[in-house]
Amino acid sequence: MTEQHNPSTDVSTTSGGQQLETFPDPGVPEHKLRMADKDPKAAKRAERQTVVLFVISIIGTIGMMVAYFAIRPDGTTVGTRNANLALGLGLFFALMGIGLAAVHWAKTLMSDHEHVDERHDVRGTDEVRAAAIAELKAGAEDSGIARRPVLKGAVVTALALFPLTIAVPLISSVGGDWDISKFKHTIWRKGTRLAIDPNGRLIKAADVTIGSVVHVIPDVPEEERRSHEWITEKAKAVVLIVRLDPADLKESEERKSWSHDGIVAYSKICTHVGCPVALYEQQTHHLLCPCHQSTFDVADGAKVVFGPAKRPLPQLPIAVDDEGYLIAQDDFDEPVGPSYWGRLK
User: Fold this and answer.
1) Three-state DSSP state, 14
2) What span, in angstroms and rounded, lies between the C-alpha atoms of 120 and 100?
3) Is 2 within the bounds of a domain?
4) Average pLDDT, the chain
5) Chain segment 265-298, per-residue pLDDT in tens
6) In terms of domains, do 151 and 267 share one?
7) In 3D, which of 201, 188, 148, 132 has the Cα closest to residue 329?
């Protein structure tokens, strides 16, 4: 006796033309009513909760706008941190409110009936297109937004205000300082001594042992470190020095005078997107950027050996003064950091 199967309800798996298994199509599970579907008070409560979440987004957007204009970076670490924290919190609540409100709305108030649509050609007939429009209207009706004016007002206001978090900073930057020549140079000068970051202690070549790594900044007067411009200038000038066995160095002829007894100095700013490159592997002489894993070979001109970076780290030519302190011979030979418009190399 041969068992008959209904092809519309059975699903089979085949391999090489051979049927392996047949099982019944479970179909769409039985729909279960939610609390808001059965209790008008629960529906009203869910609506109020959704409105509150949209209001949180509105407050977050307004808060970010206030913070953008009222809490400006003053050039100090604390001031910059506070300004970024205020902007970040405002943007967080603006996005979080919209996201949570949309999810809560969909889970508690919008229609949750499952529908099965058969696949069809990309361009449907006029009747199908008309039916799709009708379905969209029915979906809008199911969302209940038409009969919930407070919810409608909250969602419209939140969505209308949120773009300000992006537009205002962009618009306010128009007419600002777009002098890209500032990117081409740092405060390193001929004779500037190398100092340990952040305490500012000067470095003698004899203090740097083979395999050691030191994070370096320019030695500048104390009053300059207290200026508003110091953080910006320091961010461009940060350097990492490494001492290798001179026999391990692969130096081109024009750069052999840029190192001192195996000590080389390179910019800490990754040439990919500007993250701090600071993870050194002594055995391979590789420097790793923790953000996107760009890897540079310190023994071979800090060339890229792995990752998305496209250019080697700029090298700072160094020497030793009469007192044995490490000094810069000049500024970097090229702009530090990622690419930008107008950059030729």
Assistant:
1) strand
2) 34
3) no
4) 85
5) 999 999 999 999 989 999 999 999 999 999 999 9
6) no
7) 188
For residue 215, which phi and psi values (nearest 5 degrees)? -90, 125
- 209 with 278, same domain: the answer is yes
pLDDT at 4 over 60: no
User: Model pTM?
Assistant: 0.57
Q: Which residues contact 189 (CB under 8 A, 6 or more apart)?
A: 328, 330, 331
CA angle 51, 57, 60 (to 5 degrees): 140
Range of the domain at 85: 35-115+126-172
Q: Is residue 13 part of a domain?
A: no
Q: How many domains does the chain have?
A: 2
Name 86's Cβ contacts closer than 8 Å, sequence gap at least 6: 63, 64, 67, 71
> Which is more confidently placed, 300 or 181?
300
281 and 321, same domain (yes or no)? yes
From CA 108, how far away is CA 53, in angstroms rounded? 14
Q: Are 270 and 276 in contact (CB under 8 A)?
A: yes
